[in-house]
Specification:
The complex is a heterodimer of chains A (263) and B (259). By secondary structure, chain A is of the alpha+beta class. Chain A has one domain: Fumarylacetoacetate hydrolase, domain 2 (Alpha-Beta Complex), CATH 3.90.850. In chain A, 25% of the residues lie in helices and 27% in strands. Chain A contains six helices and twelve strands. Chain A has helices at 6-20, 37-54, 69-75, 126-132, 154-159, 207-220; strands at 59-65, 81-86, 90-91, 106-115, 133-143, 164-169, 185-190, 193-199, 230-232, 240-241, 247-252, 256-261. In chain A, the strands form two sheets. In chain A, strands 1, 2, 3, 4, 5, 6, 9 and 10 form an eight-stranded mixed β-sheet that branches. In chain A, strands 8-7-11-12 form a four-stranded antiparallel β-sheet, with no helix packed on it. In chain A, a hairpin with a 3-residue loop joins strand 11 (247-252) and strand 12. In chain A, helix 1 crosses helix 2 and helix 4 (126-132) crosses helix 6 (207-220). The longest helix of chain A has 18 residues, at 37-54. Chain B has one domain: Fumarylacetoacetate hydrolase, domain 2. Chain B has helices at 3-18, 25-28, 34-50, 65-70, 122-127, 150-155, 203-215, and strands at 55-61, 77-82, 86-88, 91-93, 102-111, 129-139, 160-165, 181-186, 189-195, 226-228, 236-237, 243-247, 253-258. In chain B, strands 1, 2, 3, 5, 6, 7, 10 and 11 form an eight-stranded mixed β-sheet that branches. A five-stranded mixed β-sheet of chain B has the order 4-13-12-8-9, with no helix packed on it. The radius of gyration of chain B is 17 Å and the shape is globular. Classes of the chains: A alpha+beta (263), B alpha+beta (259). The A-B interface holds A 56-58, 60, 87-88, 90, 92-95, 114, 116, 134-135, 169, 171-175, 178, 228, 230, 256 and B 118-119, 121-124, 126-127, 172-179, 196-197, 200-202, 205.
């Protein structure tokens, strides 16, 4: 068990209870403008330890954020970010997502990578990622920043586990070798109306490149991706907001579809 | 272990041997709990193992909304599969070796690694699946006339009797088990259809439920075990002379004869 400083304790409690109670909060950099990105990842670790313990759940993988040029420009940064996925964040196509447990959710279409082998090291390439991947599958990621109006700096969002809250994985899983992962078209509709279109190339040029990037970042912090992990490789279009009563479906060329219903 | 649990276990095993149904346990003892029922099932496991049987897998039952409504429950149940229950494709079964048999079509999972609860998700199950097989589960209630409540069927090993396993083994690659087709034929006549989602939304989700449920009893789903995740349509009554085929499209088909 890590010994937390008073500041860490305060911030972890602030963000953990915000998620637990589905309550929006003011971003932490308003009070602590001096926080660095390294400290933010440290806070994320502490937050996740707290979450694993309180929710009696387990880690199942990693998600990437800010993987599109457009989002990076918007945030004034030139790199992606990562957060972790827990078993209790897994939602399914056959059970509705409960709006009352969320603050101001949005949903993003992504390609999920299911790993058949560990991935680590600072020289991992996209080819290594493909080789270590047992299956790819269509996925929806629900993000729900704990910060008021989704307004935050890079430090804030990293500390907040990159706005992670739920994810849904489609049921058709295929080998990554059997499809060109660099150019998978995607159409996301809400209540029967097309809301977003995009391509897997929006994810740092190729989703496997994005995952290779994350492995390098994790390695710098002494971490790795493990066999059995799921990795959400980054949004293929902008996120769309949804509310109670909405149905979302994302259809992927060659990968099938994934859907969710919010009650 | 209370004598009550031991006695009910003896009675159910005797009913299985003699093919004579017994009165529902719940009619005779209103104090029995679902937990007691699971311990009755586990007592039977102990006795079967002592007789030289081995456990080759487990089954999930009551996975369809229709069956859950019928028994007024909101969760599935499970049973153990023993080596003498497994039959090959095209096998013949004598109906007089059972009380009142029915058949169900299921996509069987064979695991490449152990699955230990809690917090097992359908993702874990998919990753730990070596292959899937087409199966027909022959169910039989040792309680007369299928006059069962949840507690009765749980005590009676989830009403399991036989499992007929088809020849084709498929890895999950390119399959979509949620929408995978199932067509059931009786004497070459189509009598039921369904898809994977009938088993708790996704057959792998039913396997995950089982792994987590068994954890409560200190039991693990083991590598190479056959797991039946639940029926993809309602159960069908069979009698001597019937031939049943379940066709699962890309997952293959399986046939059993009754005589």
């Amino acid at each position: 068990m890590t010994v937390l400083t008073d500041r860490e304790k305060e911030i972890v409690d602030y963000l953990y209870t915000a998620e637990r109670d589905a309550r929006e909060v003011i971003k932490i950099t308003d009070k602590y403008p001096e926080l660095t990105i390294e400290e933010a990842y440290g806070l994320q670790d502490r937050l996740l330890e707290r979450r694993l313990m309180e929710n009696k759940t387990k880690n199942v993988g990693v998600k990437l954020g800010l993987t599109s040029k457009a989002k990076q420009v918007m945030m004034g940064v030139d790199e992606a970010i990562y957060g972790y996925l827990h078993a209790d964040m897994l939602s399914t196509e056959w059970e509705p997502v409960n709006y009352s447990e969320l603050i101001h959710p949005k949903v993003e279409p992504e390609i999920a990578f299911l790993l058949g082998a560990d991935l680590e090291g600072e020289d991992v390439t996209a080819e290594d990622v493909i080789k270590a991947t047992k299956y790819v599958a269509p996925a929806l990621e629900v993000i729900d920043s704990r910060y008021k109006d989704f307004k935050f700096t890079l430090v804030d969002v990293v500390a907040d586990n990159c706005s992670s809250i739920k994810f849904v994985v489609g049921s058709k899983w295929i080998s990554p070798e059997s499809i060109d992962l660099g150019s998978i078209g995607m159409v996301m509709s809400k209540n029967g109306k097309v809301e977003q279109t995009g391509s897997s190339a929006a994810v740092l040029g190729h989703p496997a490149e994005a995952i290779a990037w994350s492995v390098k970042e994790l390695s710098k912090r002494g971490k790795r991706l493990k066999k059995g992990d799921i990795v959400l490789s980054g949004a293929m279009s902008e996120a769309i907001a949804f509310t109670s009563g909405d149905s979302i479906i994302a259809q992927f060329d060659g990968l099938g579809s994934v859907s969710m219903f919010c009650k | 272990m209370s004598t009550k649990i031991e006695n009910y276990a003896s009675e159910l095993l005797e009913a299985e041997k003699t093919c004579k149904g017994i009165a529902p346990l719940t009619d005779r003892d209103s104090s029995l709990t679902v937990e007691d029922a699971y311990y009755i099932q586990l007592e039977m496991v102990k006795r079967k193992l002592a007789e030289g049987r081995t456990v080759i897998g487990k089954k999930v039952g009551l996975t369809s909304v229709a069956m859950q409504k019928m028994l007024n429950v909101d969760e599935p149940d499970y049973g153990h599969l023993y080596d003498d229950m497994e039959l090959k494709n095209e096998a013949s079964i004598k109906v007089d070796t059972m009380v009142s048999p029915k058949v169900e079509a299921e996509i069987g999972f064979v695991l490449s690694e152990d699955l230990v609860g809690p917090n097992v998700t359908f993702l874990d199950v998919m990753m730990a699946t070596k292959y899937v097989v087409p199966t027909i589960e022959v169910i039989d209630s040792r309680v007369s006339d299928w006059n069962i409540k949840l507690i009765d069927t749980v005590a009676d090993n989830g009403s399991s009797a036989k499992v007929v396993v088809g020849d084709k083994q498929s890895t999950l690659e390119t399959l979509d088990l949620r929408t995978n087709s199932m067509v059931l034929y009786k004497n070459e006549e189509l009598i039921a259809t369904g898809a994977g989602a009938a088993a708790l939304g996704h057959p792998a989700h039913a396997v995950a439920w089982l792994a987590n449920k068994l954890h409560e009893f200190g039991i693990t789903l083991k590598k190479d075990e056959l797991i039946l995740p639940g029926a993809l349509s309602g159960a069908v009554v069979v009698e001597a002379g019937d031939t049943i085929t379940a066709d699962f499209g890309p997952v293959g088909s399986v046939t059993v004869h009754f005589e």
